[in-house]
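Figure caption, in words: inputs first, then the predicted bound structure.
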Amino acid sequence: MEVVICRSYAELSQAAARIVAELLNHKPNAVLGFATGSSPVGLYQELIRMHQEDGLDFSKVMTFNLDEYIGLPPDHPQSYRRFMNENLFDHINVPKQNTHVPSGTSANHVAFCQWYEQRIRDAGGIDLQVLGIGSDGHIAFNEPGSSLGSRTRRVTLTEQTIDDNARFFKKKSDVPRHAISMGVGTVLEARKLLMVVNGKNKAPALAAAVEGPITSMITASALQLHPDAIVFTDTDAAAQLKMRDYYNWIQKQARKAD
Ligand code: F6R
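Bound structure (fructose -6-phosphate present):
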């Protein structure tokens, strides 16, 4: 796993956006996996800027989001579909019919999850999956204990995740208790994983994911199994990484080689 420690959130967002842009420049019809939450907002703003100022083209792109709250219709202010429209899709030229966010209101969640997995396969698989990390070490909504082989399914959120996400809702009791989430196994099948992490509240989870044992208790630790995973972190979130100096050394050598 490559760990890139950036001086600021702006810097990590720009560096992460460059990876997405490089992929689109050589594969305009790439399949992109997106995450919601605070972490990738800067990355999305940078992609919007690249589209508007540099002409970065999303017209042939297909997208799949990691998760959606159960019970929230697409136009609900806190639904992840609405988040993606407002924070990215409405500002770039991706055809809306090419964008996929799991449905939180399907009558048959099991059938929907099978359809979602099939849809990803039919698209040829995800080329690049954007990820954040929960303070409990989750990726997507794969809470501690989720199988590292799990697939898209209905999950129950932990109290910690409900507390963390209550900031987006009027009151904590409004936060849904369940979600549809891609599984860890689904995420691992993406050809490239790009995680963005910032803030000191993420430092313990990031250290456990990057330098701890691979365990279903920290589902982000599954990134250690992936042949092409890159993590962009700010210095606050990197604070508990024991190998910090080494990661910086690697980046310094890479810059010298350029
Ligand atoms: C969101 C998702 C979650 C978040 C994680 C971090 O689609 O899958 O795993 O990435 O909960 O959320 P933020 O970025 O809000 O701290």
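The chain has eight helices and ten strands.
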